[in-house]
Design a protein that fits this description.
With 172 residues, the protein is an alpha+beta fold. It has a single domain (3-153), classed as NADH Oxidase (3-Layer(aba) Sandwich), CATH 3.40.109. Helix content is 45%, strand content 15%. The protein has 7 helices and 4 strands. A 4-stranded antiparallel beta sheet has the order 1-2-4-3. α2 packs across α5 and α3 (53-62) packs antiparallel against α6. It is globular, with a radius of gyration of 17 Å. 35% of the residues are buried.
């Protein structure tokens, strides 16, 4: 797929088949995430890869019962790591740039999965402290997004989007 087709085809998938994600596909996704731009190229985020049933089930509980987290064979958890940006950017690096770095990386992962014929959904509704405990996340890191990845078990239609006239505000 070309880039614009990837963007058009990406959907938020909340049902996954039991088919495994091939290791080479996972490697491509992880390499793409690693290429995501970041403030000062500091990559002020950490990525946790979850495959085991017990942790995925615990993530379901931490995310208020979102069962699809247990269905997806791969779950990526993106955490901010503000200390990586603090030395260069101070508080702004810790509070903002680390958050931006993690969100950009997660977006690259979503698009890479789509380009490979896989599906995902951005999960932001979860108990941060519970997720941190499940993953044994060190102090100073903050779980920001959960990205389950697998083969789609549903085919939702494209949702309606705002018109550009409503979205774009050109200043003259």
């Amino acid at each position: 797929m070309d880039f614009f087709e990837v963007v058009r085809e990406r959907r938020s998938i909340r049902a996954f088949t039991s088919a495994p994600v091939q290791e080479d596909a996972l490697r491509h996704i992880l390499e793409t995430i690693n290429r995501a731009p970041s403030a000062g190229n500091l990559q002020a985020y950490e990525l946790y890869l979850v495959r085991d049933d017990e942790r995925r089930a615990a993530l379901v509980r931490a995310a208020g019962g979102q069962e699809f987290l247990a269905q997806a064979p791969i779950v990526l958890v993106f955490c901010t790591h503000g200390a990586r940006a603090q030395s260069r950017y101070g508080q702004r690096g810790t509070e903002l740039y680390a958050l931006q770095d993690a969100t950009i990386a997660c977006t690259y992962g979503m698009l890479a999965a789509t380009a490979l014929g896989l599906s995902s959904v951005w999960v932001g509704a979860f108990d941060e402290q519970a997720v941190a405990k499940i993953l044994d996340v060190p102090a100073g890191q903050r779980p920001l997004a959960i990205l389950p990845i697998g083969f789609a078990g549903e085919s939702p239609h494209a949702p309606a989007r705002r018109g550009l006239g409503d979205l774009v505000h050109e200043l003259k």
